[in-house]
UniProtKB/TrEMBL annotation:
The DHHC domain is required for palmitoyltransferase activity. It comes from Strigomonas culicis. This is Palmitoyltransferase. Belongs to the DHHC palmitoyltransferase family. It catalyses: L-cysteinyl-[protein] + hexadecanoyl-CoA = S-hexadecanoyl-L-cysteinyl-[protein] + CoA. It is an enzyme of class 2 (transferase). One of its GO terms (biological process) is protein targeting to membrane. One of its GO terms (molecular function) is protein-cysteine S-palmitoyltransferase activity. Its main location: membrane. Its EC number is 2.3.1.225. GO terms for cellular component: endoplasmic reticulum; Golgi apparatus; membrane. The chain crosses the membrane at residues 27-50, 56-74, 162-184, 204-227. It is a multi-pass membrane protein. The keyword Ubl conjugation does not apply.
């Protein structure tokens, strides 16, 4: 027996199952990403490729990529709670500051004091290192960026799955490229004449198209994976990396400490803390 499906809307994000599932405004691109990975991997494994080891590794990386894609695109990125608009006679909001403990280049401990800005859209102070996303219309704790291919923002609460997604997709493209080139070369070697044309038409050009596809996306995802590995090693977000700060005030003193702070981040207060009451729209649907 199917249980009732609770649908609530926060900004441009739809939540289901009492905040267990989050669907962002670019859900159609999330679906496109899923279909591209699934169909491309299926064609490689079942139709075009002849290298057993390549098919095994592509199967593994495709499953990992799809799992991490869903974990990133359907999970709360770290949405900060909203409050009701203040009355017109309310006094202006006072300045509020938050302190960050970090390690300087010489290893000494230091404290950085940053202003916590007021968000007039959410009627609340922005969370630490949080930014109001104009695509999702919510404040996201430790927001990295808005990723249309996952359909939602990448924030502190879903960054780990996003980081693993990027590396899984890079592994998928790399193994598919190597396996595709070896398989195509084997077809050319076995052809008696017009080797390239024979190898090309033997799979109706699909294998060659997949090779070109993996070259393009492999380069894109590879650069993204390296860049985010650097951010993880420094405990930075993409926004932090673009600010050109004179000193990294989020550095925790070492690689493992920075990686732990980034990949094991836990928000102090997000919308999962049963604070959906300030959502713009609440709809309960029963299946």
């Amino acid at each position: 027996m199917l249980q009732s499906l609770q649908h609530r809307r926060v900004g441009y994000i739809n939540t289901f199952r009492n905040g267990r599932i989050f669907i962002g405004p670019d859900w159609h691109l999330l679906l496109t990403s899923f279909v591209l990975i699934f169909v491309g991997s299926l064609l490689f494994i079942c139709y075009t490729n002849t290298i057993t080891a390549a098919r095994v590794f592509v199967s593994l990386f495709s499953v990992l990529s799809l799992v991490f894609l869903l974990l990133t695109g359907l999970r709360n990125p770290g949405i900060a709670p909203r409050d009701a608009p203040p009355p017109p006679e309310a006094s202006p909001r006072e300045h509020r500051f938050v302190e960050y403990s970090y390690r300087k280049a010489d290893g000494s401990a230091a404290v950085h004091k940053a202003e916590q800005k007021w968000c007039y859209c959410c009627n609340a102070y922005r969370p630490p290192r949080g930014i109001h996303c104009r695509f999702c219309d919510v404040c996201v704790t430790r927001r990295d960026h808005h990723c249309p291919w996952t359909g939602i923002c990448v924030g502190g609460c879903n960054y780990r799955s996003y980081f693993l997604l990027v590396w899984s997709c890079f592994g998928l493209n790399l193994t598919a490229f190597i396996g595709g080139v070896r398989s195509f070369a084997a077809r050319m070697h076995a052809a008696p004449s017009q080797r390239f044309r024979t190898a090309l038409v033997s799979t109706y050009g699909i294998e060659f198209v997949l090779i070109l596809f993996t070259v393009f996306w492999g380069l894109m995802v590879g650069m993204l994976a390296v860049y985010h590995s650097y951010l993880v090693s420094q405990n930075l977000t993409s926004g932090d990396g673009q600010r050109h700060m004179p000193e990294n005030v989020f550095h925790q003193g070492g690689l493992f400490a920075n990686a732990k702070a980034t990949l094991c981040f836990q928000a102090d207060e997000t919308i999962t803390n049963n604070r959906l009451d300030a959502a713009e729209e609440i709809v309960v649907t029963t299946l």
